[in-house]
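Figure 3 (text version): structure tokens given as input.
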């Protein structure tokens, strides 16, 4: 590397699909001075994903491993060892995978990488056998990392226990998420949502964590008492077939909109009247920060960290369908100046400009070790 070349930080991720974790990393990447700090990505699927083209355009490199495709851990260890031997340019690696992070860090340490940043993004795992295996695999992670980051207090305690960690908020670019009446009108017209309809929105990957069926069941009950309600689900994932099946079972085809993955999700918050996040667990949901910036009223499961409570637009509810049904019916969504909530986020630590500059400074210092 020439003296005037940027340092290269290796981000270790499952892949760069459209999701909260990936969006946060891209927010950092877009707002750093790439003449000083460049991101490269070690991913665990062979297929290209949503953000790959943008990464290519910004000068980032993507290294594809096949662990998540074939579950061949022996092959992964051999290829990882070869990779680190062939890439001595990486002085700092930043891992966002707590389940296999310890394997990566052991191989990296063996190959002389002194700075190994662990980053906790969740406060729990699901209760399936797969989830329990992940939890066991997480246990040695904190003993091979050299720096510990977490997106929330709960996420840090969950992964690191009594070991110290630093909080790195899941920050956003507030300007993108400011309420926009034009976006509201255009999107509601596009999806045939009447101006009088109360639109409940959700953005998230279709998996167990996000609890879509709970949301559908609660919405269905509320609809029986107020047929002016509508629901919009943005995203995709392995449980999409289950969600579609449940929509048909509840006869909600005329009341629920499935958009799939969209590349302009920031516009959709303006169209929502309520943002619902009944997740079974979260670290610190980026969508929760984005939604508050737009001034939409937020309903979160009460297991979600209070660290995301930046404004007075949040209410935490226990995961009880009757509670959520009643709230959908009784929320007063009118007479709010939604534009005023932009400043609340803009002045907070959830502003990406603050966090990206902080991490840029940290990366530059750490790379000298």
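Below: residues designed for each position.
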């Amino acid at each position: 590397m020439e003296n005037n070349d940027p340092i290269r930080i290796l981000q270790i991720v499952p892949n760069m699909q459209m999701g909260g974790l990936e969006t946060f990393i891209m927010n950092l990447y877009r707002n750093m001075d790439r003449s000083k700090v460049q991101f490269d990505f070690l991913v665990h699927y062979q297929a290209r994903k949503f953000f790959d083209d943008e990464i290519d355009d910004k000068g980032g490199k993507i290294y594809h491993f096949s662990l998540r495709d074939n579950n061949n851990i022996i092959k992964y260890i051999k290829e990882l060892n070869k990779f680190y031997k062939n890439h001595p340019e990486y002085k700092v690696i930043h891992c966002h995978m707590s389940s296999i992070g310890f394997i990566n860090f052991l191989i990296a340490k063996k190959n002389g990488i002194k700075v190994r940043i662990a980053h906790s993004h969740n406060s729990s795992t699901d209760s399936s056998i797969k989830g329990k295996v992940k939890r066991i695999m997480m246990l040695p992670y904190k003993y091979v990392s050299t720096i510990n980051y977490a997106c929330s207090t709960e996420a840090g305690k969950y992964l690191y226990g009594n070991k110290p960690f630093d909080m790195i908020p899941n920050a956003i670019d507030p300007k993108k998420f400011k309420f926009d009446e034009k976006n509201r009108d255009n999107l509601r017209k596009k999806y045939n949502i009447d101006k009088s309809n109360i639109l409940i929105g959700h953005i998230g990957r279709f998996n167990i964590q996000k609890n879509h069926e709970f949301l559908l069941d609660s919405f269905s009950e509320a609809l029986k008492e107020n047929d002016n309600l509508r629901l919009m689900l943005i995203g995709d994932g392995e449980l999409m077939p289950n969600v579609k099946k449940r929509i048909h079972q509840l006869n909600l085809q005329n009341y629920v909109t499935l958009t799939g993955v969209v590349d302009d999700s920031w516009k959709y918050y303006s169209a929502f009247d309520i943002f619902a996040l009944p997740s079974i667990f979260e670290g610190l949901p980026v969508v929760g920060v984005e939604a508050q910036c737009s001034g939409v009223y937020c309903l979160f499961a009460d297991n979600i960290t209070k660290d995301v409570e930046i404004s007075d637009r949040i209410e935490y509810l226990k995961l009880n369908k009757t509670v959520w049904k009643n709230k959908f019916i009784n929320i007063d969504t009118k007479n709010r100046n939604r534009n005023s909530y932009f400043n609340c986020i803009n002045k907070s630590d959830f502003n990406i400009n603050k966090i990206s500059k902080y991490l840029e400074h940290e990366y530059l210092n750490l790379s000298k070790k």
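The longest helix spans residues 352-366.
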